[in-house]
Amino acid sequence: MAEHRRSPNQSAEMAADERGRLGRRRVLGYLIAAPTLAVGVTWIANSNDPQTADAAVPTLPQPEQIFDLGDLQNLAAAPTSGLISVQLRTDGTAYFAVPRAEVGQGMTTAIAMMVAEELDLPMDKVSIGLADARPELLMNQLTGGSNSMRSMFLPVRTAAAIARQRLVETAAAQWGTPASNLTTRDGVVSGPTGRTATYGSLAEAAATSTTITVSAELKSRSEFTVLGRPHNRVDAVDIVTGRKQFGMDRQVPNAKPTMVARPPTINGTVKSINNLAAVRAMPGITDVVAISHGVAIRGDTFGQCIDAIQVVDATWGPGTVDNESDATVLAKLRAAQLPMAVPPLLSNTIDAEFVFAFASNSPLEPDCAIADVRPDSAEIWASLKVPIVAQEDIAKQLGLPIHAVKVHVNQAGGSFGRHLFHDVAAEAAEISQKMGKPVKLSWSRTDNFRQGRTHPMCTSRVRVNYLAGNVLSYEQRHTSVQTDFGHGLGEMITSTAAHLPVAGNLSFAETIFTLSQSSPYNFGVTTQLLNEIPLKFNTGSMRNIYSPNVVCAEELVVDRLAAKLGQDPVRFRRNFLRDKRLLAALNKAAEVGEWGKAMPKGMAQGVGLHAEYRGAVAALVEIDCRPETVNRPIPDGVSGPRVTKALIVVDPGFCINPRGLEAQMIGGLQDAIALALTSSLHIKDGIPLEGSWDNYFYTRQWNTPRDVQVLIMPNTSDSPSGAGELAVAPAFAAVACAYARATGTMPTYFPINHGKLGFEPHPLEPSTPQSPTDGLDHTF
Amino acid sequence: MATHTFKLNGKQISVDAEDNVRLLWVLRDLLGVTGPKYGCALEVCKSCTSHINGKAFNPCSVQVKDIQPADEITTIEGLPATVGKELHPMQQAWLDMDVSQCGYCQPGQIMAAVAKVKQAQAEGRELTEADLDELRNICRCGTYSRIREAIKAGAEDM
User: Fold this and answer.
1) Which of A44, A408, A477, B27 could form a Cys-Cys staple with B33, CB 3.0–4.6 A?
2) Which residue numbers delimit the 2Fe-2S ferredoxin-type domain (chain B) (predicted)?
3) What is the edge-to-edge ordering of all strands in the sheet holding A84-88?
4) A399 CB contacts (<8 Å, ≥6 apart)?
């Protein structure tokens, strides 16, 4: 296959003319020495990603619009591609171990579609696994920032396209006919005389004994038959039959159920266990040891661990925020708010402050991990979005070399930012090392809410000056308890900081803020700044980082501004928007959602807009704030206003899988409803009061709109935008704006029911409540 | 430690466990039946929802001693056999609507949905939106609207 070897000069030539006939793009990869066909590709920056710098005046583009967080991740990925590879097996299936986490976002389905498209292989013959920690990939193994589709779209297709080409060439050589005479379809190569060969039959012959560079052409968008069409999840059958194996379901020999009795404040410690013998004597219990933040208990069943937690008598040491409650944190935030730069214009100024309570990013599957720590090695199984950092940290913690720690990535029952961190894996490793036995650690539901990561409390202050129908300045000062980015993005920033078109010596959080936030409006002098206070809560990203709060505050002020200028909210936005894709989405939403239709008193529509991750969303919702709805009786749940109808219009750049994209929009909407109306943590004396899903009021069936519609705009790009987090911010804003219009009062503290504690808190000790026994009284 | 016997997914089984251990742990930790998920063990999230004698219940909140030898426990794994097919119509509806996201809550959602539909059928009435509002199963991925569509579609075929 000498004709496919390319010297560096030749590849430079190709780069100059990378789009050949049919608008196809020529790409490079490697045939890897392996027993069956294997193709590797370097992890190249997705140069298709549009740079949507907007030349609109008078507001200069903010950094996010030139270069966003995803671009940064792409850039960081470029030089460290390692090799990600597609392998073809003799049974005709293609296998790709994706260095990302599947947490419900449908990433494996989208990747399978990319492979199926370029390889001309049926979806059911594409198998996607989750790669173990691969240190050689450096920061290429991070699932976050809604970046997976953006960074993997080209490399995965490249590998598959090269594999297809190699199979064709192999068949051509065997049949003595030019490769151009052959076609591929459904995993079969066909020749002009009706001769056929399955990919499986060619897999060995197509293999190479030395690794060589090859090039191939990607299909153009017009040739796609898989990408862009709706596909169901690849794991759907396993899910509905109960066969899908989550981390919690994984069995490792002798890794017995383990839980931890915890102190009554966040990050509290153990001074002494006062009844160790009694706890060890509990039925089914095998081991009890003190660890950094609690008393670890290993037993035959998780239920017996919970039983043992009930009897633990320990003396606890202080935590990291013992004296903090909602009010003290808010006072500290207000003291840290950065000043506005532009003085108020007296009667022509809007000054507003919004407060957002702590929120939990806990998924439904409790945090869990299996650890088997031996004297000279360790093996870890956990859901990890940044497994390399977990591997490094755990190795350091255990006093082992990195290569002695094997880290496997589990399928997760949700993430929402939680699995960026490896807290539970590190704790499992600590326990296994101390007990000298394998453990299957699960945090209890209550642990997840009280000791787990949170989206931190924050305030957003906005000042707008306007005059004679124009907006002169828009200033936003976002102040937050620090968000922990210790999951390793920091390394990436450090390594690529020189390339950032961001002036000055910004802190890491400020950089993330700057790269993810921008105002889509022509509002004159525009500044959005972040300040953080260094309180030691356990924090992290939560299905977006800053956008839901920043955008909610901005859009509420936009509605108020529209009112001051005597304009309808949608018309006002049309007049001031400088993002054309957002404008198109808004127009579509207004038309399909019948903006401005007559509503009964106490009900209203609201609209919210947001562009991020190279995507754009307009959300239009209807809310019912009438007393009969607000006060509808719900046992052990909050009722309150109900969003009755929701429309999400999304421009995803290039839509890979409409069905998956729609799912992400629906999920983002439900998160938004929760953040706006019902879900928050109440911090009291150093710990959240919430301990169950009937305390932390995530959206339930009785809160969800009965009418939900997602509209996908025609493709505006050859590259996919991020989708996982995209809908949360605009939908949050839409719900808040609708509430303000329905009630005539602009909400300033979120969620709106935060001021009223809607439940009786579980005691702080025991840290995990005992399970009920009356389940048979509640059958239906 | 006592030996407990009951019918699980069509088979009479025996298991040694302390009387007070909740059935969820007997199923998951001792018998390796992992379709019913652990989400809270507080009878709140409903991700362990299974059936006892055809009715929905939460094994996280029932002690194994309270299960009688004649009781028939059905988990998601045994649901298709209750209709003698590869998939129960509700599971098929779930596939048709591509309901699942992470999937962790879905076995419980499906078991609750089947019971809810049967309840309405037993009362000789159509399933209503208000019935669906009563379902307490958490879906933290928020695929609620597809769950509602799937239940209505699945009910048509039950």
Assistant:
1) B27
2) 7-55
3) A126-130, A94-98, A84-88, A38-41, A26-31, A212-217
4) none
Using a CB-CB cut-off of 8 Å, the residues of chain B touching A775 are 23, 43, 57-62
Q: What is the pLDDT of residue A144?
A: 66
The predicted-structure confidence for A442-493, as pLDDT tens digits, reads as follows: 999 999 999 999 999 999 999 999 998 899 999 999 999 988 876 544 344 4
Q: Which two tokens stand for residue A766?
A: 């025991």
- State the burial class of residue A12 (Cβ atoms within 10 Å of its Cβ: 0-12, 13-18, 19+): exposed
Query: Which tens digits make up the pLDDT trace of A164-212?
Result: 999 999 999 999 999 999 999 999 999 998 999 999 999 999 998 877 8
| pLDDT 10s digits, B88-123 | 999 999 999 999 999 999 999 999 999 999 999 999
Structural domain ending residue among the three candidates B76, B109, B137: B76
Candidate from A239, A283, A692 with C-beta closest to B103: A239
3-state secondary structure (DSSP) of residue A422: coil
Q: Is B138–A698 a contact, with Cβ atoms under 8 angstroms apart?
A: yes
Q: With an 8 Å Cβ cutoff, are A303 and B59 in contact?
A: no
pTM of the entire structure?
0.91
Contact call for residues A465 and A349 (beta carbons, < 8 A): yes
Residue A1 or residue A513, greater confidence: A513
Sheet holding A378-382, edge to edge: A285-291, A294-299, A256-261, A439-442, A368-373, A378-382, A405-409
Tokens of A603: 């009900």
Sorted by where each starts, the structural domains of chain A and their CATH numbers stand as: 2-240 (3.30.365.10), 247-314+367-442 (3.30.365.10), 326-360+453-750 (3.30.365.10)
Q: Residue A583 is encoded by which pair of tokens?
A: 């404008």
Mean pLDDT of chain A: 87
Whether A108 contacts A235, CB under 8 Å: yes
B109 touches chain A (CB under 8 A): no
**How many A-B residue pairs are in contact by the CB < 8 A criterion?**
240
A 10 A CB-CB count for A756 gives 8
Query: CA-CA distance, A309 to A315, in Å (whole number)?
Result: 14
Task: Confirm if A469 and A565 have CB atoms less than 8 A apart.
Answer: yes
Domain boundary among B37, B59, B76: B76
* Bridge pairing between strands A26-31 and A38-41: antiparallel
Alpha-carbon distance A133 to A391, whole Å? 7
A-contacting residues of B 118-137, CB under 8 Å?
119, 129, 132-137
DSSP A257-287: EEEEE--SSTT-EEEEETTHHHHHTSTTEEE
Identify whether residues B136 and B149 lie together within a single domain. yes
pLDDT in the model for residue A62: 55
Among the partner-chain residues B20, B100, B144, the one whose CB lies closest to the CB of A240 is B100
Q: Are A37 and A207 in contact (CB under 8 A)?
A: yes
End-to-end CA distance of chain A: 67
The verdict on a CB contact (< 8 Å) between A304 and B37 is no
What's the domain range around B72? 2-76
- Paired tokens of B17: 């466990």
Q: What's the order of all strands across the beta sheet hosting B55-57?
A: B11-17, B2-8, B72-74, B50-52, B55-57
ipTM over 0.95: yes
- Number of neighbouring beta carbons within 10 Å of residue A183: 13
When CB atoms are compared, the residue of B18, B22, B44 closest to A693 is: B44
Is residue A544 within 8 A of residue A731, CB to CB? The reply is no
* Strands A707-712 vs A256-261: parallel, antiparallel or unpaired: unpaired
Q: Which pair of structure tokens corresponds to residue A77?
A: 């990925």
- Using a CB-CB distance cutoff of 8 angstroms, which residues of chain A are in contact with residue B45? 364, 445, 692-693
CB A419 within 8 A of CB B104: no
Nearest CA in chain B to A708: B145
- Residue A352 has which token pair? 């507003």
Same domain, B50 and B30: yes
